[in-house]
Specification:
The chain is α/β, with parallel strands linked by helices. The chain has two domains: about 110 residues, Urease, subunit C, domain 1 (Roll), CATH 2.30.40; about 290 residues, Metal-dependent hydrolases (TIM Barrel), CATH 3.20.20. The strands form two sheets. Strands 1, 2, 3, 4, 5, 14, 15 and 16 form an eight-stranded mixed beta sheet that branches. Strands 6-7-8-9-10-11-12-13 form an eight-stranded parallel beta sheet. A hairpin with a 2-residue loop joins strand 15 and strand 16. Helix 4 packs across helix 5 and helix 12 runs antiparallel to helix 13. The chain is globular, with a radius of gyration of 21 Å. The model has no long low-confidence stretch (mean pLDDT about 95).
Length: about 425
């Protein structure tokens, strides 16, 4: 479909020379055009500019949209989720209210292990059906690309089941989806005390089968206190890399685990969570190709310390923000809320926050060349807001949906 949008109050995150990501002081840069037009053809951004320079024939477009008083933003890229899961875990939420920690719940068979148990009773079709509902919800809130992890299977059959579901979602959903294999999400109860044997199972059985069916784009490990060690992590990452799976790592959510350094060492696309990030971790990340990714929803929901985002940016690092949408520690995929949290909880300026959930999070998914900004030739994934007064209103008005129209792959949703 060809679409022409005119009289845009502000066209945000425009690029004539696309960048991979923005780091440090660059994160305060948010290019825009006032009183703009945007033309879409064959699912791609064909042209854009000021209405004063508008010379296109409106009759050449199948759909004309007047966006007077409204703004256009590139769709959010949510680079870290677990949104394929069998059931919610609100009872554990009550346990958290009563004072039990994330680790205490996990030790008694709750948390990830609870979801893993329920997964065995759920079919691929059921997983797909429930995940499609979640994808539909986040689409309406402005998300156009999402990374989805396995990790609730914890054995070969169940991990493959999750990845089959994600593959089906790629076929059915208009969102751009990346799949990540996370067999190393937790240690199954039957392998407690024999953790290295479970790592062997991941390396010798799971990874080859995942790779044989081309089920994953990336490989992930939960490298943290009480979960997988740096040695475990490095073994798994090396095995995955042999099959072309680039690393993404859960790191330093619960303690200074060495996960950030391991991620940089193995050229991870991103290291995620990062609540425990100090001078050594920042130094490791500087000049690397690894995107530090903060997950505000999890820290907020669990009442944890917040990652030092301000300090990281001031040191010259880029920062991405993602939802961590999952049933246990972040039961929301609302990236508008994440955008607000970036400013409210982490003290990012609105410009920095928008960069964190668009171009930087697109990089954290390996999609920076096709998503994350308004640039000619990029995929036409963006949203038109309701009538809003300023760009700053997006993170400011944290309780309402500011999105009016969603366009993905050049099609109105």
């Amino acid at each position: 479909m060809s679409i022409l949008i005119t009289n845009i109050k502000k066209l945000v995150q425009t690029e004539t020379k696309p960048v991979k990501f923005r780091a440090g002081r660059q994160m305060t840069e948010l290019p825009f055009i006032e009183n703009a037009f945007l033309a879409i053809k064959d699912g791609k951004i064909a042209s854009f500019g000021e209405m004063n320079n508008f010379k296109l024939q409106t009759s050449n477009f199948e759909l004309n949209i007047d966006a007077s008083g409204k703004m256009v933003f590139p769709s959010f890229c949510d680079s870290h989720t677990h949104l394929v899961y069998p059931a919610s875990r609100e009872i554990e939420y009550v346990d958290k209210i009563k004072g039990l920690s994330y680790e205490e719940i996990a030790k008694r068979g709750g948390g990830i292990l609870n979801t893993a148990k329920k997964l065995k009773e759920t079919t691929v079709a059921e997983l797909v059906e429930s995940a499609l509902e979640r994808l539909g919800e986040i689409k309406k809130l402005g998300t156009g690309a999402v990374e989805i992890k396995s990790g609730y299977g914890l054995d070969t059959e169940q991990e493959l089941k999750m990845l089959y579901a994600i593959r089906k979602l790629k076929e059915l959903s208009p969102l751009t989806i990346k799949a990540t294999f996370l067999g190393a999400h937790s240690i199954p109860l039957e392998f407690r005390g024999r953790q290295s044997e479970y790592v062997d199972l991941i390396i010798n059985e799971m990874i080859p089968m995942v790779a044989a069916e081309d089920l994953a784009d990336y490989i992930d490990v939960f490298c943290d206190k009480g979960f997988f060690t740096v040695e475990d992590t490095e073994r798994i990452l090396m095995a995955g890399m042999k099959y072309g799976l680039r690393p993404k790592i859960h790191a330093n959510e619960l303690d200074y685990s060495g996960g950030i350094q391991a991620g940089v060492k193995y050229n991870a696309l991103s290291v995620d969570h990062l609540e425990y990030t100090g001078d050594a971790e920042i130094e490791a990340l500087i000049n690397s190709e690894t995107m530090p990714t903060i997950l505000p929803g999890a820290a907020f929901f669990l009442g944890m310390t917040y990652a030092p985002a301000r300090r990281m940016i001031d040191a010259g690092l880029p920062v991405a923000m993602a939802s961590d949408f999952n049933p246990g520690s972040s039961p929301s995929g609302n990236m508008q809320l994440i955008l607000s949290m970036a400013s409210i909880l982490y003290k990012l300026t609105p410009e920095e926050a928008i960069n964190a959930v668009t171009i930087n999070s697109a990089y954290a998914m390996g999609l920076e060349e096709e998503l994350g900004s308004i640039a000619v030739g990029k995929k036409a994934n963006f949203f038109i807001t309701k009538e809003i007064p300023t760009v700053e209103f997006m993170p400011y008005a944290y309780g309402s949906n500011k999105v009016e129209t969603v366009i993905l792959n050049g099609e109105v949703q």
